[in-house]
Amino acid sequence: MMSFARKLRLCTKVALGKELLIKYDVICKKERFGSDYGGWDIVTANLNSNSVVYSFGVGEDASFDTALIEKYNLTVHAFDPTPKSIDWVKRQDFSDKFAMYNYGIAAFDGNVSFNPPENPEHVSHTILDRPSTSTEAITVPVKKLSTIMQELGHSHIDILKMDIEGAEYNVIKDICKSDIRPVQLLVEFHHRFEGVGIKETKKSINIIRSMGYQLFSVSATNEEYCFIQSTC
């Protein structure tokens, strides 16, 4: 539960136009999976061992993925092209149900420059401009969601989670143009990034809603948004 101090700070930022406050579209019975840092709320109805889960952005916290695997014995298809994340996954003793792919998602198929974080102890890279670290950028492979599904032989997705450091805005536009409609769509928005802003997040939320999704959960940080395709 959000503290009073946290609510006050959030309301102040909203009033100053530095943060957004979006109302839920629907109240769902939900359950949180994963750590305080890497966890997400989901609607568990109809999930089983055959459910298809795509998890974009592993970093160094796969607690959401492993919690789903433990409860449902399903396969999580996890994606992250970040070298530090790839090395971290290799050092873990994950179940065979955790399927790791060393590429990312984008609105196109190809390669992209990946700018490292300003703090070298952090793991998350971004395809957005980051002048302070651009000289250390790496090139990584990315694919469209439709390409990934075709290659993996999936005709549907039950849960699509994206924590992709600013790439979500164009990916959402690409998904909207396609006929792909995951049952649940979990997105971390990065309006805090320089050059992005809350207007872009509002636009993306409107696009998601236009595809028939309803917002059922927002994290305490006001960055992770959870949508579902049908009323729960």
UniProtKB/TrEMBL annotation:
<dbReference type="GO" id="GO:0008168">
    <property type="term" value="F:methyltransferase activity"/>
</dbReference>
<feature type="domain" description="Methyltransferase FkbM">
    <location>
        <begin position="74"/>
        <end position="215"/>
    </location>
</feature>
<protein>
    <submittedName>
        <fullName>Methyltransferase, FkbM family</fullName>
    </submittedName>
</protein>
<dbReference type="InterPro" id="IPR006342">
    <property type="entry name" value="FkbM_mtfrase"/>
</dbReference>
<dbReference type="Pfam" id="PF05050">
    <property type="entry name" value="Methyltransf_21"/>
</dbReference>
<dbReference type="GO" id="GO:0032259">
    <property type="term" value="P:methylation"/>
</dbReference>
<dbReference type="InterPro" id="IPR029063">
    <property type="entry name" value="SAM-dependent_MTases_sf"/>
</dbReference>
<keyword id="KW-0489">Methyltransferase</keyword>
<keyword id="KW-0808">Transferase</keyword>
<dbReference type="InterPro" id="IPR026913">
    <property type="entry name" value="METTL24"/>
</dbReference>
